[in-house]
Specification:
- Helix content is 34%, strand content 20%.
- The protein has 486 residues and is of the alpha+beta class.
- It has two domains: 10-252, 3-Layer(aba) Sandwich (Beta-lactamase); 315-483, Alpha-Beta Plaits (2-Layer Sandwich).
- A five-stranded antiparallel beta sheet has the order 2-1-9-8-7, sandwiched between helices. Strands 13-14-12-15 form a four-stranded antiparallel beta sheet. The protein has a two-stranded antiparallel sheet with strand order 3-4.
- Helix 3 crosses helix 4 and helix 4 crosses helix 5.
């Protein structure tokens, strides 16, 4: 006699991996390189690219997204979006991260790349840049589709990138509930978050073909473990297995392990569009497809022009500055003047475009100083900064600062990163000022001491100048965001 077994309880192929998040060391693996259906673990990549797009100014968390017929028609789990509805990106991000809403994930992909197919190509480019060698995405939400596959190893790598590349957004995955614009939604991972000590994310996934999947992370003291399971039989049994593997990971992980952040993949953008940005119309066309207006945007800077001296300054003023820091600034000048010199890795931006999506009291760890930078004495740094300012009488200098802070709407600024020391921040400010003289000349360089590091700011700009400076710096792969009037 044959007994029919419901598809929902049939065992899917099983795979698992346990990783020390601090170093990337694999502590345990079973079938970790077997391509399997990732289900909604896919949404980690969708969200990663959304955060990247916000960071690079493609859109903001307040961008109104018009929901397409395709997105509205996605099957559950879903937020319940309607065709033609306009909703802020922040709510789509929350719905995809917390509720695992398929319609929200599709809307995110279409908003960024114009279509889900184009967004899938961008997902695959980003996955390849991360080293996810056995992953192929076909959609933004993870619904079962032929060829849409990944592995426990690749998803563990993606989870690690999410934690360290965008820590300012990571708290989204630990929210038990959140408001997604239309209604309050509950976290699909709330049981594990509430049951396992130290658990703080990150993403569940389920389809009949995949079984019950989970990429989870937990932190205890200085130790952080990432555990990935594919093919669980149920939510309860999957969570029990993840908890067992987490315990194994904490047992095997060293107490003192040097933090080696994963290398952030290069910003690839929408390669399908080249140097053309597609501005989508607010109203959908009759057949549900959004209209497109094509506008040419400025191309990336291909070479760095030699900076010009400030008014009233002569070339001889630079020599004492270079000598004062024993050749360190000479390296900076060379990197600014030579187009072939590779740009330094940009620090993780620590002001968040969507401030409401950062947990209260959450802090971002400062970026480590790149290797090869030699620290100079505080006196040398002070001398370098002072030498870089225009020569003026004390009264005139005071008048300039007053005008910057009160006249013509020059109440804006830009931030070019947070650094572990005042010296590092001052050095970056000097380098950036030399790099972008046309917009930053006359601005006030300011280092702000925060609990988690030193902010490098340029103040006393108009909103238009701050926006232009950020866009020009981002074209040179320099992290930058605007600071509004206080």
């Amino acid at each position: 006699m044959l007994i029919a077994v419901p598809m929902s309880v049939m065992a899917a192929p099983y795979a698992a991996m346990v990783m020390d998040a601090r170093s990337g060391e694999v502590l345990h693996a079973e079938n970790a390189d077997t391509p399997l259906h990732p289900a909604s673990l896919t949404k980690m990549m969708t969200l990663y690219i959304a955060f990247e797009a916000v960071e690079h100014g493609e859109l903001s968390m307040d961008t109104l997204v018009t929901v397409s017929r395709n997105a509205a028609a996605e099957p559950p789990s879903k937020l319940g979006l309607r065709q033609g509805q306009k909703i802020k990106l922040r709510y789509l991000v929350r719905a995809a991260a917390v509720k695992s809403a398929n319609d929200a994930a599709t809307a995110i992909g279409e908003a960024i790349a114009g279509s889900e197919a184009a967004f899938a190509r961008r997902m695959n480019r980003t996955a390849k840049a991360m080293g996810m060698t056995r992953t192929n995405f076909k959609n933004a939400n993870g619904l079962t589709e032929s060829g849409h596959m990944s592995t426990a190893r690749d998803m563990s790598m993606l989870g690690r990138h999410m934690i360290y590349d965008y820590p300012q957004y990571y708290n989204l995955f630990s929210r038990v509930t959140t408001h997604a614009g239309m209604r309050e939604v509950a976290n699909t991972n709330r049981r594990f978050l509430g049951q396992y000590r130290g658990a703080d994310g990150i993403k569940t996934g389920y389809t009949r073909a995949a079984g019950f999947n989970l990429v989870a992370s937990a932190e205890r003291g200085q130790e952080r473990i990432i555990t990935t399971v594919f093919g669980g039989r149920s939510t309860a049994s999957r969570n029990a297995k993840v908890a067992e593997l987490m315990d194994l990971g904490f047992k095997r992980a060293g107490t003192r392990v040097a933090l080696r952040r994963p290398g952030k993949p290069p910003y690839l953008g929408n390669k399908d569009l080249g140097n053309i940005a597609v501005a989508r119309s607010a109203d959908p066309s009759p057949d549900g497809a959004r209209g497109k207006t094509v506008r040419v945007v400025s191309a990336a800077v291909t070479r760095s022009l030699r900076p010009q001296s400030r008014p009233g300054a002569s070339g001889t003023d630079v020599a004492p500055l270079v000598a004062s820091v024993e050749g360190d600034i000479e390296t900076v000048l060379a990197s600014v003047q030579t187009a072939e010199v590779a740009a330094e890795p940009a620090p993780v931006p620590e002001q968040v475009a969507d401030a409401s999506d950062v947990a209260p009291g959450a802090s971002v760890k400062p970026v480590r100083r790149p290797k090869g930078i030699v620290l100079a004495s505080a006196a040398a740094v002070a001398a370098a900064v002072a030498a870089a300012e225009p020569v003026a009488e004390p009264v005139e200098e005071q008048e300039v600062v007053t005008r910057l802070s009160t006249s013509g709407g020059r109440h804006w600024g830009i931030n070019v990163g947070r650094y572990p020391s005042r010296y590092s921040a001052e050095k970056v400010l000097l380098k950036t000022a030399l790099m972008e003289t046309s917009t930053l000349d006359g601005s006030l360089r300011k280092v702000v001491n925060r609990s988690s590091g030193f902010d490098a700011n340029f103040m006393g700009l108009s909103r238009e100048t701050a926006d232009l400076a950020c866009r020009r710096l981002q074209a040179r792969q320099v992290t930058c965001f605007m600071i509004g009037p206080s």
